[in-house]
Design brief:
The chain is of the alpha/beta class. The chain folds into 2 domains: 36-158 and 247-287, 3-Layer(aba) Sandwich (D-Maltodextrin-Binding Protein, domain 2); 164-245 and 296-331, 3-Layer(aba) Sandwich (D-Maltodextrin-Binding Protein, domain 2). The chain has 16 helices and 13 strands. It is globular.
């Protein structure tokens, strides 16, 4: 049957309507799509790289990719919920979204430390491959949904931390005996086995305690992240590498009801933005270490490397701690996640020889 000009116009109009647009005075006008405005609580003060170079990435990317259909307002620690209670605030619907470090939830479920990194974890190169190219991503999401009732996925990664900013030199196992060491998480359970005494302090109390020598040493973050805190200005020694935290993945998590209200395309945008956050934060925070070490040297800090024996013992104790958690567990989440991560790291050794180049 021969189609008339009117038939073609009707077809064109139907296509435009199907695409969410109408014709008005010869111009295409898009139908108004539903917009969303969320609040995102974080565990970080506004001035920290974790806030500016990690948590903030996703809201910026989502706003741009969604054309403003989803706007996420960020809030620093304490504005919506205390720094260590962000997951609970999101679960209860106090806000739609949060950004934090999984290891803070060790007291609720120790498997949180496996996805957040601990002594014995793989380094950040291996970790990022486990998260996105193995079953780490799925295990992460399923674990958080079942045990914490939030929609969660990786959203940030830092490389190896500083082992300690210290008033005393620490190189050998003997040097750790009696050291008053500020730390938290799994390392707080492990470190006493190396002879140190643990003092657990929140972030805001670390610098004054180190300055007043209430503690001898503290771990906190990477060299570049520690720099603005001024830890190197009050303690002479910078001890590396951070065998207690070879890598530290972070995460975004969302209230399930808020997540279900989003259309599929915005859900996909959020997940892609979280992946972008992981890559960008890994490289941005990693490169901050360059000026940090330059500053340490210029100020006369002594940069001291832990002996291989200390590093090996820390890893051994980390593995021992993990096996103890499996034995005490009331469910199999710790075993599933740890077995997956450890197996992937062991398989990765097959390619490590091709990653290391030796030049005379």
């Amino acid at each position: 049957m021969r189609k008339t000009r009117r038939d073609f116009l009707k077809a064109a109009a139907a296509t435009a309507l199907g695409a969410g647009a109408v014709l008005a005075n010869g111009r295409r006008v898009h139908a108004q799509a539903k917009t969303f405005r969320w609040r995102m609580a974080t565990s970080w003060p506004t001035g920290q790289p974790l806030y500016t170079d990690m948590a903030k990435v996703l809201p910026d990317v989502v706003k741009k990719m969604s054309g403003g259909r989803l706007v996420i307002d960020m809030f620093p620690a304490g504005a919506i919920a205390p720094a260590l209670e962000i997951v609970d605030a999101v679960r209860r619907g106090v806000c739609q979204m949060g950004h934090s470090w999984p290891g803070y939830d060790i007291g609720i479920h120790p498997a949180s430390c496996i996805i957040g990194g601990f002594a014995g974890s793989p380094n950040s190169e291996v970790m990022i491959h486990w998260m996105y190219q193995s079953d780490g991503y799925k295990l992460w999401r399923d674990f958080r949904r079942e045990k914490f009732n939030v929609i969660a996925f990786p959203g940030g990664l830092r490389p190896t931390e500083v082992f300690a900013h210290s008033h005393k030199p620490i190189r050998n196992l003997e040097d750790l005996k009696g050291i008053k060491f500020r730390t938290v998480g799994a390392w707080a359970d492990i470190l006493p086995k190396l002879g140190a005494s643990v003092v657990s302090l929140p972030g805001g109390e670390v610098l004054p305690a180190l300055e007043r020598k209430v503690i001898d040493a503290t771990e906190w973050a990477t060299p570049g992240e520690n720099l603005p805190m001024g830890l190197h200005e009050v303690a002479k020694y910078v001890i590396i590498p951070g065998v207690h935290q070879p890598s530290a993945p972070f995460e975004y998590f969302i209230n399930p009801k808020a997540w279900d209200e989003l259309p599929d395309d915005l859900k996909a945008i959020i997940e892609e933005a979280a992946k972008i956050t992981t890559l960008e934060s890994w490289t941005k925070i990693g490169v901050l270490d360059i000026p940090a070490f330059e500053t340490f040297k210029r100020r006369g800090n002594v940069i001291m490397e832990l002996s291989p024996k200390v590093q090996s013992e820390a890893k051994r104790l980390g593995y021992e701690w993990a096996e103890q958690q499996i034995a005490k567990a009331k469910d199999d989440w710790f075993k599933k996640i740890w077995t997956s991560q450890k197996t992937f790291a062991q398989r990765w050794k097959n390619v490590e020889r091709n990653r290391l180049l030796h030049y005379e």
